[in-house]
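Can you make up a polypeptide sequence alongside its tokenized fold?
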Amino acid sequence: MNLMTHDLGESQRFYGAVMGWTFRGNALGDEFCVAEDTEGGTVAVLGAVASTYQVAVAWIPFFAVAAIDDTVARVRERSGTVAIGPLRLPRGRGALAADRDGAVFGVWQDDGTPGRIGRRSRLAWVELRTRDSFEAAIFYGEVLGWGAEIPGAPEVRYEQEAVVVRDGDNQLARISSGAVEAAPDPLVRPMWRVHFPVADLDAAVAEATRHSGSLVERQDGPEFRRAVLRDPAGAIFTLAERTGG
């Protein structure tokens, strides 16, 4: 998971206060840092590169691939677009792409360079809300190999009117229908959303607004209470507190 933003210090102060994350440098350079949770697990990479690459400030999921050139070719063959890359970076190559409905995602091919990775933190989930979940599942399945009958490929299931991608017991992604490409409200357009788990949603929301973030909407369900937030630079993310289930 990557946050593309303008001011690294501002993002560190905001997410440190709201989520309790700590930050360390990494091999990508001074414009990047790694966010770690309270148990030392790696949550995300933050990069002050939105202006450099002329992209919107946003949380963007990056999916690991074995052969990035082939992956990028499949994106284009299936009417997606590739905005950036593949670029050579320390420890691998990356590219920024969008699916047929405009939802932005990244792909990353690690080059196997030794270095500190750390235990991967468990996100609540990443979710794509799009025009047609079945069509989107086919696109990502063909591009990223989801559901392929090869060893180690993530499994694709249909659960509660959504497409769920799992790696064993770990939910990698959820795809649901309902977004509209031309909607004036960006929350209604196709986009990948990141959900972070919190123990106390109300306290986290209060901390976010105290540090120049804003509450976009609340979503209460039988299993989770959720708050959609916008950070000071404009990146949208969701906090989720488990209430039952």
User: Anything to note?
Assistant: The mean pLDDT is 87. The first strand starts at residue 2 and ends at 4.
